[in-house]
Structures are given as C-alpha cells and as structure tokens.
Amino acid sequence: MSEAWSLHPQLDNDAVGIGDLPLSRLLLSKDANYPWLILVPRRAGAVEIIDLDSDDRASLMTEIGQVCEALKDVTGCDKLNVAALGNQVPQLHVHIIARRNGDAAWPRPVWGAAPALEYDAAELEAFMGAIRRRTGFG
Amino acid sequence: MSEAWSLHPQLDNDAVGIGDLPLSRLLLSKDANYPWLILVPRRAGAVEIIDLDSDDRASLMTEIGQVCEALKDVTGCDKLNVAALGNQVPQLHVHIIARRNGDAAWPRPVWGAAPALEYDAAELEAFMGAIRRRTGFG
Fold this sequence. Notes:
The structure is a homodimer. Chain A is of the alpha+beta class. The first copy, chain A, is built from 3 helices and 5 strands, in the order αβββαββα.
C-alpha cells in the first residue's frame, strides 16, 4: 500500500525547511542555543533507520556526512552530535548538532537541557544562507 | 603517520567486549537500565563520523543496521536510539540503545538520566549470548 510522505507536524513546528536532498528533507531547528540541523528521510512510515532499505541507508549516511561537513565548516564547532532518537516524534529524523565547549548544555546532550532560545532574524538568515550555500541549495 | 588503534579506557571501563565486526568493535554497556550496545570503529584518531573515509562510513552504516536489527530482535523494544555524541569520550563511538516505554529515562535520552544499574551476572550472560548469536559471533 503506498502512502504519501509528509513532514511530521512537530518537526514542521520546531524547524524551518532548507531544502530536499536526494533522500531527506533538511531542516534547521528554531532553537538558537545550538546550530542544529535535522535530516528527515522522505519515506512514509519510516520510524527506525532499519525501516530503510539498504540503498536508502547508504544515502542517509552520505547525507549525514555532507551535512556534518557543512555544519562543521560553517560553525567551526568543537564537536558534532549525530542522533536518531525519536522517543517523542516517531517519524525517522536524524539530529546533527554543532556543539561548543560552554554551550547551554555542554557536555550533556541538548535534549531537555535548556529552554529553546529564539533566533534573531538576521542571525537565522545568515546561518541558513551559509548552510544553503555549503549544501548546494544556495 | 600510522598510529595503532586502541579502545578508549573509559569505554573499556563502562562496557564489555562482544567481538570485532569488519570495521567496529562491538561493546555492551554495563548499565543494566537499558539493553545498550556500542560500536567503536577501529580507526586511530577518529572523533567524528566525517573523520572516516567514504568506504568506512558505508561500513559503519552497514554495522549500525546489523546491530539495530539484532538488538530489536533480541529485546522487542519499543524504540531504538542511535547516537554518536562524544562530548565526554572523544573516541568515535555509536550508541545503539533499546528503549522501552517506562524505562528509567523514558522518553528522555538515557545519558545522565539515571545512575547506572549493575547487571545480574546471569542476565548479562544471557543478553550477551543472544546478541553474540544474532550478530554472528556465537
């Protein structure tokens, strides 16, 4: 049975869209505490990485690498955090977060560590533009 | 300059070895709160996924899939959590954790959520044996 993919409303609410890579939609989290991107494979019903077939798993790793490289180049971060958790939002999504020694959660994981911080509009535009250019959308 | 890979002492302390897959050493966390496996690519100096070349990244995804399937089959968990964080232990390692609605951290991430719980020796042996058989070491 075929079912159309659509972005989970919680992800749609918490992040803004950057563009579609071959497999995944690339989002930018609205939480200004951390430069935080999210990859969402456009596969209806996928909850776990192992719900993807082997070609899609390979594409996901390619896109994780591409987004990690872009985020590291743009931010000069101390560490990348890459995670597929999905305990609260079941749609498969992979967080890729630039961490800095001394950020709002360091050295703990970011989830639940600090209230979300609103972006300054110009700062968001600049960050999104830099990521767009670096990932081929700009 | 070539440098021999060795397991980070903190990982060696917190987990027990199950065996070596083509790329990664597979470990089992000693925290009995959650069925928790860890993949550590045997590449000296690797800190980020993007420190791996593209062949190794592909192997890592293959091994993540293999371990996710084994852990899901063995535990019948509600959700898998897959994460490469490394804010405290810099050696690249990927957590693969079986989560259950109502476990010690649910629905939060496991890190820092509850004090580590010691395994009963027989329970550890049974879990390790099941994972070994399911990942081809048994």
